[in-house]
Amino acid sequence: MPTDRVDPPAPALWQGGWLQAARACPSPNFGPRPAGAAIDLVVIHSISLPPGTYGGPEVEQLFTNQLDWTAHPYFEQIRGLQVSAHFFIRRDGELLQFVDADARAWHAGTSSWRGRSQCNDDSVGIELEGLEGERFEAAQYATLAQLCRSLGTRYPIAHIAGHEHIAPGRKQDPGTGFDWAELQTRLGWSVSCFPEDTFFSPQRTT
Question: What residues contact residue 114 under an 8 Å CB cut-off, 6+ apart?
Fold first, then answer.
């Protein structure tokens, strides 16, 4: 006997500017974007605390202003720093979100890209757990590609750049170990979305 079947609605991808696939770890370090800001840029960073150490809670603690500055000698160099990124991708591909993507996170600093300055105003900042110059994990590229696609469903993303590109000479992350060709292949987006110098010496993941 035929019945009228009504499938349940698909789960929402976003709740406001919060991606439902990410673990939420709200940071106090954010502010409003300027009126009319076009959120069309993704900025990729790398971070590990202490540098080269992975898997601990220190990055989460930094972005939520809970880091114990006395826990490691390196932390004295960044004591009092109040920063944030919208997203953080761990080595195993786990995705965390610290700031509503509709809001302005504090990740780019003094910066300029595609003829605009102050990239915090109209970008989404993504931190990869890693050390500049070293390679990243396949699980991170998979999560990063899916995250970029998800961002593209909500915002007019047209550009992806590294911190090193928007703040040349001041920043070097994610560095030479990041495989831009791998990300472009996974996304299938035009190379015109990426910095011009990123496809000459790809560093393939193993």
Answer: 41, 159
